[in-house]
């Protein structure tokens, strides 16, 4: 690009729901005055139960609409499922920097002492060849267990909306890893869905003190800071915008639930 974006050009964060808030937080810590738009595809939630073909078509089309409307300087696909499936399609379709989310298998492999790592994601993420490739590249001499947990996405959305959720979903997710051969030696769990850090306390309690939870949010924040290095930002921070795709059975959350993340208004498309 031969021109720098205007200071008020936002960073666009995109997820199927509210999970990407776990990426927004660390990014705002590094770039406190950066304008941002947080987009949640409530009409398409949950992504983990969609086919690769559906997501490869849906995500670039929706991001195209969002880019046209909000003119961001950079887009973050703050969703492991969408990144592992649609990232190449999005990069081919859009002419702006795109940061994806990948399961934090590399840092987990550096942390583990037992050589047994758990990968907790959506069903769609844990079945991707991408996860095989990361495991082969960074954890080839280790045991990488994986489990797809749709119930955790539902629980994370409910928790952030201040609604009740089934605590057994947390226990089931951890058991889904631990009950596999070698699972009792697992000492690191990769939270390979951006929704899951929203349940970090609950997951940690279920996993026990001998297990460390790790996710990729800090790395994504550093990548965004690196790609926007030298660009101009506003002098002061302004409230961000949250935009939701219109869903008949899933209204946007109350603004009070989003306000702690710096969001000041809600729009639907």
Q: How are the strands ordered across the major sheet?
A: 4-3-1-2-9-10
Low-confidence stretches: none
Q: What does the largest sheet look like?
A: 6 strands, parallel
Which sequence of SSEs, written as H and E, runs from N to C? EHEHEHEHEHHEHHEHEHEHE
Estimate percent helicity: 40-55%
Shape summary: globular
Number of strands: 10
Radius of gyration: 18 Å
Mean pLDDT: 95
Strand content: 15-25%
Q: Which class do the helix and strand fractions yield?
A: alpha/beta
What does this entry look like structurally?
With 269 residues, this protein is α/β, with parallel strands linked by helices. It is 41% helix and 17% strand. It contains eleven helices and ten strands. It has helices at 21-30, 52-70, 80-93, 105-111, 123-126, 129-138, 150-160, 168-178, 200-207, 217-227, 255-258; strands at 11-15, 36-40, 74-77, 98-99, 116-121, 143-148, 188-191, 212-214, 240-244, 263-268. It has a six-stranded parallel β-sheet, with helices on both faces. The chain has a four-stranded parallel β-sheet with strand order 6-5-7-8, with helices on both faces. α1 crosses α10 and α2 (52-70) crosses α3. The longest helix is centred in the N-terminal third of the chain and has 19 residues, at 52-70. The mean pLDDT is 95.
SSE topology:
Layout: E1 11-15, H1 21-30, E2 36-40, H2 52-70, E3 74-77, H3 80-93, E4 98-99, H4 105-111, E5 116-121, H5 123-126, H6 129-138, E6 143-148, H7 150-160, H8 168-178, E7 188-191, H9 200-207, E8 212-214, H10 217-227, E9 240-244, H11 255-258, E10 263-268
Parallel strand pairs: 1-2, 1-3, 2-9, 3-4, 5-6, 5-7, 7-8, 9-10
Helix pairs in contact: 1-10, 2-3
């Amino acid at each position: 690009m031969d021109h720098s974006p205007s200071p008020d050009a936002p960073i666009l964060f995109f997820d199927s729901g509210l999970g990407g808030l776990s990426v927004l937080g660390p990014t705002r810590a590094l770039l406190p005055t950066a304008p941002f738009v947080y987009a949640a595809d409530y009409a398409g939630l949950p992504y983990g139960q969609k086919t690769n073909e559906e997501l490869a078509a849906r995500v670039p089309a929706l991001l195209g609409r969002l880019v046209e409307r909000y003119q961001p300087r950079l887009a973050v696909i703050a969703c492991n499922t969408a990144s592992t499936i649609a990232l190449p399609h999005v990069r081919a379709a859009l002419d702006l920097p795109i940061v994806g989310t990948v399961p934090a298998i590399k840092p987990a492999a550096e942390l583990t002492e037992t050589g047994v790592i758990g990968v907790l994601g959506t069903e769609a993420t844990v079945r991707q060849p991408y996860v095989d490739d990361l495991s082969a590249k960074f954890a080839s001499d280790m045991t990488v267990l994986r489990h797809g947990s749709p119930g955790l996405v539902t629980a994370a959305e409910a928790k952030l909306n201040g609604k009740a959720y089934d605590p057994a979903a947390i226990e089931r997710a951890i058991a889904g890893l631990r009950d596999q051969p070698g699972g009792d030696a697992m000492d690191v769990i990769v939270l390979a869905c951006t929704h899951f850090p929203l349940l970090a306390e609950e997951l940690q309690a279920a996993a026990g003190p001998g297990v460390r939870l790790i996710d990729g949010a800090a790395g994504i924040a550093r990548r965004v800071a690196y790609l926007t290095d030298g660009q101009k930002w506003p002098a002061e921070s302004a409230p961000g915008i949250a935009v939701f795709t219109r869903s008949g059975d899933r209204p946007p959350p109350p603004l009070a639930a989003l306000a702690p993340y710096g969001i000041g208004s809600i729009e639907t498309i």
